[in-house]
Design goal:
The complex is a heterodimer of chains A (about 350) and B (about 290). Chain A is mainly α and about 350 residues long. Helix content of chain A is about 70%, strand content about 5%. The radius of gyration of chain A is 20 Å and the shape is globular. With about 290 residues, chain B is mainly alpha-helical. The chains are: A mainly alpha (about 350), B mainly alpha (about 290).
C-alpha cells in the first residue's frame, strides 16, 4: 500500500522528499505554540481553501477536465452546511452536517457530471458550462433576500448571506482556534496522502491515460466516462469540503464566495502552482493565499489585479506553473542531474510532451 | 387578441435581442479560432462606459454607440496582437489568459473609476397597442440584433474577406498555403468579435446601471448561446438564440427573471446530453 505513495504520477520521492515533508509537518504542528491565536486562525483560513485547489489539481492536472465550477460546489456545500446546522440544532450534529453537505455537493457533481461527460463535453465547453452553472447559482442566491426564501428555519438572506449556524462542535466543545487548526492540518495530510495514493494506483493510471488520449484509453477497454465522472465527483467533493469548512469557520457564507471573481481563484492557484502535481499545488496555493490575504488587508481590488496578472503571466511565461518549474530546478541542482535517463525522468519528460501537444 | 400576440412577440424579441447581441462577438471569435474570450464581458463593459462617457460630453447617443463599438474593436485587435496571437496552438491557455485579463480590467476599473457612475437613462418613447404600452427602445434593440445577424451573414458569405475567413475556419493550414493571410484574418475576426461586444454594451448602456462588473450579467447568456449553437457558429448561433429565447420567455412570463435563467441553464444541460455538438451539427447533417 505504501508503494503507492511514490509512483510515476507524483513528483517528490525518496528519503529526501519525505524528510522534508515530515519537517514541514512537524513545523506546522508546533506552530500554534509560538504564534498568537489570531495568526493561528488566519492559518486555518488559508488551509480551508487548499482542499478546493487539490480537487481542481486532480480534475485538471491529472484528469484533463478544466472545471470552472469549484466555487459552485463550494457554495452548494457551504449553504448546505448552514441549512443543516441551523435546522438540526447545533452541537455534535454539526459533524453530521459537515459530512452530509459534502455528500450533497458530490451528488450535485454526479448529476452535472453525468450530463456533461455522457454528453461528450470536453475541453473549453466543459469549462464554460460549469462556469455558467456557477454564475447562475450566484445570481440565484443573490436575489433570495426576502423572508419567503428560507429552508426550514434557515434564512438565505440574498447578498448579505446566511449566518447564525454553529461552528463544528463536539459535545459542548466548539472546534475553534488551535483545535480547528489541528483538524485542518490532519485533514490536509489525509487528503494529500489519499490523493497521492489514488493517482498512483491503477485507477489513477487510467485517469491519466484518459487525459493523454481518451480514445486510446477507451480502445484499451476502459469505460473512460466512469473514470471521468469519478474524478469529477472527488474533485468537486473536495471543493464541497472547503465550502462546508468555510461556513463553519466564519459562521456565514455569501453569494460572493461563489460568483466572479471568486470562481477564478482556484484556477489561478492551480495554474500558478503547476497543475500536473499535487505537491506543487499544495505549496503554491498556500503561498498565493498567504500573499493574497496580506494584500487584501490594504486593497481587495489590488490583490485581485495581482491574481489576474499572475494568471496571465503563468500562461504566457510558464504554462507548466511557476512553483513546479522552480521545484524542478531545485531538484535538478540537488541531485546534480545524476538521475537523467532513469525511469522517473522518463515519466516526467513524457508528461511534459503531452502537455505541449 | 392581436395586442396579446404582439405582447408575446415583444417579450420574445427582447430576450432574443439580448441573446444575439451578447453572444455574437463571443461566437465569432470562438468559431474562427476555437478561442473562448473570457474578457468578452469586459469588452461589453468597455462599450457601455465609452458610450456613457461620450453622451455626457454631448455626443448624440447613436454616434456615441457607434464610436464605442469601434473603440472596443480596436482594443480587441490590440489584445489579439499582444496576447491571443501567441496562444493559438493552446486554446485552453488563451481562455485562461483572457480570464486573467478580465480580472485585471474589472478590478482596475473598480480601483480607478469606483463602483458605479451615473447612467444616462433609457431613451424615452413608447407606443401603445390595445391596452399595453411598449418601449420603443426595446424594439430598436431587436432591430439592431437582426441587423447584426444580417451584417454577419453578408460579411462572411458575400465578401472576399468572408471566403478567406471561412476557409481559415475550416482548415487554417490549407488556407495559409493557398495564400490567405491567416494572421491578419484572425486579428480582424477578433476585432469584429470585440467590436460586437462593445456594440452590445453600447446598446444596453442606457438601460442598466453601469458598474465595472456588469460584464458578468452578459456572460452566462453568451456562453449558453454559443454552447447550444455548437461548433459551426455561422449556422448555429441564430437558431440557438431563437430556441433559448422561447424557453426563457415562457419561464420569465410565469416565474420571473431568475427562474427564467435557471430554466435556460437546465435546458442547456439537457441539450448537451442529447446534442453534444450543438444545434449546428443537426443543421449541417440536414444540409447534406
Amino acid at each position: 500500500m505504501f508503494k503507492l505513495l511514490d509512483g510515476p504520477q507524483t513528483l517528490g520521492r525518496g528519503r529526501t522528499f519525505w524528510s522534508c515533508f515530515l519537517a514541514v509537518l512537524a513545523a506546522a504542528l508546533i506552530y500554534p505554540a509560538f504564534a498568537d491565536s489570531y495568526d493561528v486562525g488566519n492559518f486555518s483560513y488559508f488551509l480551508i481553501w487548499v482542499f478546493m485547489a487539490l480537487g481542481l489539481c486532480l480534475m485538471w492536472g491529472y484528469g484533463g477536465m478544466l472545471s470552472f465550477g469549484q466555487t459552485f460546489f463550494f457554495g452548494i456545500s457551504g449553504y448546505a452546511y448552514g441549512v443543516l446546522a441551523i435546522n438540526m440544532g447545533g452541537g455534535s450534529t454539526t459533524i453530521a452536517a459537515l459530512v452530509l453537505s459534502v455528500i450533497i455537493a458530490m451528488i450535485a457533481a454526479g448529476i452535472l457530471g453525468y450530463f456533461m461527460i455522457w454528453g461528450g463535453i470536453s475541453g473549453i465547453f466543459f469549462g464554460i458550462v460549469t462556469l455558467s452553472a456557477t454564475l447562475v447559482l450566484a445570481f440565484f442566491l443573490g436575489q433570495t433576500a426576502g423572508p419567503e426564501w428560507h429552508i426550514g428555519t434557515a434564512r438565505l438572506n440574498g447578498f448579505n448571506g446566511m449566518k447564525g449556524m454553529d461552528p463544528l462542535t463536539v459535545g459542548d466543545f466548539y472546534i475553534e482556534g488551535s483545535a480547528l487548526y489541528y483538524v485542518m492540518v490532519a485533514l490536509i495530510v489525509v487528503v494529500y496522502i489519499a490523493l497521492r495514493m489514488l493517482v498512483n494506483s491503477r485507477i489513477g493510471n487510467v485517469i491519466v491515460a484518459t487525459r493523454e488520449n481518451p480514445q486510446r484509453a477507451e480502445m484499451l477497454g476502459y469505460d473512460v466516462r466512469k473514470y471521468q465522472l469519478f474524478t469529477f465527483i472527488i474533485g468537486s467533493g473536495l471543493a464541497g469540503l472547503s465550502g462546508a469548512l468555510y461556513t463553519s469557520w466564519g459562521q456565514f457564507i455569501t453569494p460572493s464566495s461563489i460568483g466572479l471573481p471568486a470562481a477564478a481563484m482556484p484556477i489561478v492557484w492551480v495554474a500558478f502552482s503547476g497543475r500536473s502535481d499535487l505537491t506543487a499545488t499544495l505549496v503554491g496555493s498556500f503561498l498565493l493565499l498567504f500573499g493574497f490575504q496580506t494584500i487584501t488587508v490594504y486593497s481587495q481590488q489590488a490583490a485581485l489585479v495581482l491574481m489576474g496578472t499572475l494568471l496571465l503571466a503563468t500562461v504566457m511565461l510558464a504554462p507548466q506553473g511557476f512553483v513546479l518549474g522552480v521545484g524542478k530546478l531545485v531538484v535538478d541542482r540537488w541531485t546534480g542531474r545524476r538521475r537523467r535517463g532513469a525511469n522517473p525522468a522518463l515519466a516526467e519528460s513524457s508528461r511534459l510532451q503531452s502537455d505541449e501537444a | 387578441m392581436s395586442a396579446e400576440l404582439f405582447s408575446v412577440f415583444y417579450q420574445f424579441a427582447d430576450v432574443f435581442a439580448f441573446l444575439i447581441l451578447s453572444a455574437a462577438g463571443l461566437a465569432i471569435v470562438f468559431g474562427m479560432m476555437g478561442v473562448i474570450n473570457m474578457a468578452h464581458g469586459e469588452f461589453i463593459m468597455c462599450g457601455a462606459y465609452v458610450t456613457v462617457g461620450l453622451v455626457k460630453l454631448g455626443v448624440p447617443l447613436a454616434i456615441a454607440q457607434a464610436l464605442a463599438a469601434v473603440t472596443a474593436g480596436l482594443i480587441g485587435v490590440a489584445v489579439e496582437y499582444l496576447i491571443v496571437r501567441r496562444l493559438y496552438k493552446r486554446p485552453l491557455d488563451s481562455l485562461l489568459a483572457t480570464w486573467g485579463l478580465s480580472l485585471i480590467v474589472t478590478q482596475s476599473m473598480l480601483l480607478i473609476v469606483g463602483s458605479s457612475i451615473t447612467g444616462i437613462g433609457t431613451p424615452e418613447g413608447s407606443f401603445a397597442i390595445g391596452g399595453y404600452t411598449f418601449s420603443t427602445y426595446r424594439l430598436v434593440l431587436f432591430a439592431c440584433a437582426v441587423a447584426v445577424l444580417i451584417g454577419l451573414y453578408v460579411t462572411f458569405m458575400k465578401t472576399r474577406f468572408g471566403v478567406m475567413a471561412r476557409a481559415t475556419m475550416q482548415n487554417a493550414a490549407m488556407a495559409k498555403a493557398l495564400g490567405a493571410r491567416t494572421g491578419r484574418i484572425y486579428a480582424i475576426s477578433f476585432g469584429i468579435g470585440a467590436g460586437l461586444a462593445g456594440l452590445c454594451g453600447a446598446l444596453y448602456a442606457p438601460t442598466m446601471t453601469l458598474i465595472p462588473t456588469m460584464g458578468a450579467t452578459f456572460v452566462v447568456e453568451s456562453f449558453v448561446t454559443v454552447v447550444v449553437g455548437g461548433a459551426n457558429v455561422l449556422l448555429g448561433t441564430a437558431p440557438a438564440a431563437v430556441f433559448l429565447a422561447m424557453i426563457r420567455m415562457a419561464l420569465n412570463a410565469s416565474y420571473g427573471q431568475i427562474i427564467g435563467q435557471i430554466g435556460m441553464l437546465f435546458a442547456v444541460i439537457l441539450i448537451i446530453r442529447v446534442l453534444p455538438e450543438g444545434l449546428s451539427s443537426v443543421l449541417v447533417r440536414r444540409g447534406r
